[in-house]
Amino acid sequence: EAEERLREAIQELHQSHGRDEEAAKGGGWGCCVHQGESCAAHAAGNLCQTFLLSYGVRVGIGILLRAFKLARRRSYASLLDLKQLVSEKDLIVREEACRVGLLFGGFTGSYHALRCFLRRFRKKETPFNAILSGSVAGLAILALDDSSRRRTLSLYLLARLAQCAYNSAKSKNRFHFWGSHWRHGDALLFSVASAQIMYAFVMRPESLPKSYRDFIQKTGPVAEPVYKAVRDSCRGGHVDLIGLSAYFANKKNSNLINLTRSPSIIPCSVIHPDRASCLAHNVTVTSSTFKKTFPLYFSLTFVPFVVLRLQKFLESPAATCWRALVGAVRSTTFLSAFVTLFQVIISN
Question: Tell me: the pLDDT tens digits for 185-223?
């Protein structure tokens, strides 16, 4: 019975999202798109539905990442042990999942409630109703307790707002950037942005958020003391040989390192001390980056496919899993190629 009710709820959710909202524009000020239910019920239903979907996505990603972690330890039997898979000690995402659910659920519910209120209060439906409702509903971001996360999400939404404004202006032939019509202009723009980000990561790391620096550092194969030595060398300063010696103490080929305090360039023996061959190092970088990032990308691809498109998943689970796998492999291959090409260029 629970499975049948869940299927009916998801089907009803898809039907609700598939309604034509254009009917509200020509049906009078009192005509809302949610025929058959009150405005309060419509807002509460959207709040609950969005909360459950957001909560399910966050918890599902956490569980899948935990399963990959156990599989990486070759502890396959523990995958069937719920105490190790979803225990409070090992899966600390419940509070975060609730906050994420309150964020998106609160935004959706309050947006629909305010929009219905403005539609009835002003006796007309205009873009101003949506703008004001969305602005007030944005206060749902206070559900996140971390100010840095709130700032990051706000900046992300601001970038999306700028993108929407630009796409609207471009579609109306009012404004567009030079070269935006090029076939691979997006790839060129990404290359320019990546160049600035990687320069900032190596030479001005304090200009990037700590979480972003940690992600780049963890994904790449070069240690932080080596980047510091590169910065000191490029700025004409003295390299911290004591710090490098401490880092390379347990490396296999530490005898390859022959560095002065003021080198003109950091040699490859410092960048990859475990391997004398740059080619072997680059091959290892590709495989290691793929192994490290595939669980993350697969979780981010598979869980939303299942939670947000449960009806399609129940109808064709194999096709859904295949699409999620292909998407994860493409994303992981992209990041692996990016890291490898970066290493190839700096080595040459």
Answer: 788 888 999 999 999 999 999 999 888 899 899 888 888
pLDDT digits (tens, 9 = 90+) for 13-30: 545 545 544 444 444 445
Task: Identify residue 90 by its one-letter amino acid code.
Answer: D
Q: Where are the domains of the chain?
A: 2-146, 277-348
- Name the least confident of 235-244, 247-256, 258-267, 270-279: 247-256
CA distance 257 to 271: 10
Alpha-carbon torsion 283, 284, 287, 288, what sign? negative
> Which two three-digit tokens encode residue 289?
């980056």
CA distances from 167 to 125, 248, 278 (A): 24, 50, 43
CA-to-CA distance for 345 and 263, rounded, in angstroms? 19
Nearest by Cα to 34 from 51, 21, 44:
21
Secondary element (H or E) of residue 228: helix 224-234
This prediction's pTM: 0.67
